[in-house]
Amino acid sequence: MSAASRADLPGVGSGVAVPADPRRWWILAFVAIAQFLVVLDATVVNVMIPTISTTLGGSIEQLQWVVNGYVVVFGGFLLLGGRMADLLGRRRVLLAGIAVFIAGSVLAGLSDGIGMLVAARVLQGLGAAALSPAALSIVVTTFPDPGERTRALGIWGAIMGLGGALGALVGGALIGVHWSLAFFINVPLCLLVVAGVIWLVPASTRTARGPSDLLGAALGTAGVSTFVFGVSRIELVGWLHWQSLGLMGAGAALVICFLRVEWSRPHALLPRAVFTRRSVRVGVAAQVVSAATMLPFFFLLPQYLQLVQGYTPLRTGVAYLPTGVVMIVVSSVLPTLLARLGSRPVYVGGALITAAAAGAILLFEPGSSYPALVMPVMMAMGAGLVLCMMIGPIVGTAGASEGEAGAVSAVLNASSEVGGAVGLAVVVSVTVQAVAGGAASPTTGLHAGAIALVVIAAVNMLVGATMRAASRPGAEVTPTPVDVPAGARS
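The structure assignment produced for this chain is given below.
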């Protein structure tokens, strides 16, 4: 493995041996459950909207906010949540985020009106914005060995993919009993995570110090939230309407102001050193485009299976099980692939697989065989996605110091949210426009969306091509060793 390839991986070249926590794999297991629930709750409601509409009523716009209320708040508050993890201690912020997430889940399950359900989803998103970057930064600092960290982040990426893949299965299975169970099921799993974190993760300590950056927190949160809100309006009002174009422009302007303010401050919410590091920029690009591929895929295929093939929500969820199995298998072999090939060829290969799978969706017609065509395409897409979604955090966290882990984790998570929202908006708008054109084929919209996915996957290959350059010796800052005292790692 070349020096350039090894530099893709966090901590390589530091020359510092750091004792590993003997409980590290158990820690990973518990925080991975928390991340799984965060991703699952972003997708589980997709197949439940018709049932929720029948039970609680509500307009189309209100029902859209059952999904978008979670996504907008989650994406908007990630930067703040990540920095708070650095300033206040990761375990403390993780537990606080889980508590808010539980409260939102209980409120959602008890909802007797659409307004109450939307408020509950907003509360869930706020909790997720705190727990998700804290959980990822715990993984980064718990695995100082670069090889083990690669495996741990590989499992982390696979968990994200599985959360998206199994959302339809969980939602479809629970609809048959009652839709509220999709929210109540979070409670015992979250309590399990709380017990595991209290038992295994050392007491929180502050890993970054300095005065509170209230202006940065306000600008960053407002910028990302406004941009994602604008993207969420595209499906209803179109790309050129002031509600979408204007809000996206305002959000982008606020983000630019946020960066200008932050990079002039010694104690910033997002330190300049974080985003000027090329590994972070490449990791962000990888997360944006990979998520822009993943979320539309998990939107298009359920629509095809249910509306064209006539599958029930439960049968649709079961149809995704082979995809989940493939993701687990691929994640287990990723460390070996990275050790032999480096990040660039593996990532580009994953993007190429997703492009081929998206292209094969053009072959789908009413009555297409699931085992002969649909299942292989879904499995191929899952394999390609998990390669890309796993390598993004590995590259992005390269060189992250103890005091930066939360901020870097938040940036990567926020990038996934923004990328997923934009990708879904692009594919949905293309699909809707194709259907509105009046073509008779029931797969017209599906095929149009597949073409958009091919284009996004092609962009993803270009992102992968930059990874070797990003890790060329001398092009990157020297990785800061993650040297965490045994009693301070949180």
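Interim note for the steering committee: The radius of gyration is 21 Å. The chain has 21 helices and no strands.
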